[in-house]
Amino acid sequence: MQAVWYDRQGPASEVLQIGDLPDPDPDAGEVRVRNHFSGVNPGDTKKRRGWLGSSMSYPRVIPHSDGSGVIDAVGADVSRRRLGRRVWVYGAQSYRPYGTAAQFTVVPSALAVDLPHSVSDEVGACLGIPGITTHRAVFADGSVAGATVLVHGVLGGVAALAAQLAGWAGANVIGTVRRTSDLDQVNSPAVAHTVALDQSEPAAAIRDVAGGGVDRIIEVASSDNVDLDAAVAKNGTVIAAYGAGMIVQIFRSGHAFRQHDYPPAWQ
Questions:
Q1: Are 240 and 233 in contact (CB under 8 A)?
Q2: How many whole angstroms separate alpha carbon 37 and alpha carbon 128?
Q3: pLDDT band at 211; cut points 50, 70, 90
Q4: Can you identify the CATH homologous superfamily of domain 130-266?
Q5: What's the pLDDT score for residue 143?
Q6: What is the pLDDT of residues 63-112, one digit of tens each?
Q7: Which burial class, exposed, middle or buried, applies to 118 when counting CB atoms under 10 A from its CB (0-12, 13-18, 19+)?
Q8: Cβ-based burial of 46 (10 A; exposed 0-12, middle 13-18, buried ≥19)
Q9: How far, in Å, CA of 124 to CA of 114, rounded?
């Protein structure tokens, strides 16, 4: 099979290799996926660079944990009815050496999830780390039905999914964008109101819509938005932060109440 791999850490231009490797075969409980798309996440590049002093977990790594494709072989204890199924893949290179940056990927059967016909392969390749992160950020503290949810950076990948999930679950969604010039790019029907953070009083604009404050904040940059979040929060507001220059935590009313184990590739 054709694949991309690295045997040492460093800049992509210096360490990534492209060539042929033996086709993998699934063991018991595993499936082999003929990949159509490979999803790239920040954690994939961080592991390849040796971010924060991390070392090679395996002598050779085929990167990327997410992807999509079709199951073309199954191991023992896996139903042959899975053959030919379109799937999205997650965790392929989480605690495993070989990810989706190759023609074939072998993963435990549970990590290859059936992909509905209405969902494209491109979207399927983005449902792993971004989708799981989104789901936890929106629902880790329970239902959002009837809640007012503030989603920061709503044009980003995780935030766009968060807005859709929160809206689907019955929340009133307020989104933010960095600049007023970005407002026209927000076209998600799930976002009821959008606020540009470069306006003079973004907190006031959010509170005008949210009344007494928002119930939940989906935060991509908590170190940048901490003052704004404090200004629009109320007693009992949940802040689910998945990105910042700090440890990822979930906060309630100003103090950490639960540390979640996000996918290692995202940290």
A1: no
A2: 12
A3: confident
A4: NAD(P)-binding Rossmann-like Domain (3.40.50.720)
A5: 95
A6: 999 999 999 999 999 999 999 999 999 999 999 999 999 999 999 999 99
A7: exposed
A8: middle
A9: 10
> For residue 65, how many other CB atoms are within 10 A of its CB?
30
Look at the chain and count its residues. Answer: 267
Residue 148 identity (one-letter amino acid): T
Q: How far apart are CA 89 and CA 68, in angstroms?
A: 6
Could you tell me which of 180, 181, 163 has the C-alpha nearest to residue 172?
163
Assessment of whether the complete model's pTM goes beyond 0.85: no
**CATH 3.40.50.720 location in the chain:** 130-266
Q: Does domain 2-125 have CATH number 3.40.50.720?
A: no
CB 226: neighbour CB atoms within 10 A? 15
Parts of the chain belonging to CATH 3.90.180.10: 2-125
Compute how many other C-beta atoms are within 10 angstroms of the C-beta atom of residue 134.
25
CA distance 134 to 220: 11
- How far apart are alpha carbons 70 and 84 in whole angstroms? 6
Q: CA 144, 205, 178 angle in degrees (round to 5)?
A: 85
The fraction of the chain above a pLDDT of 70, given in percent, is 91
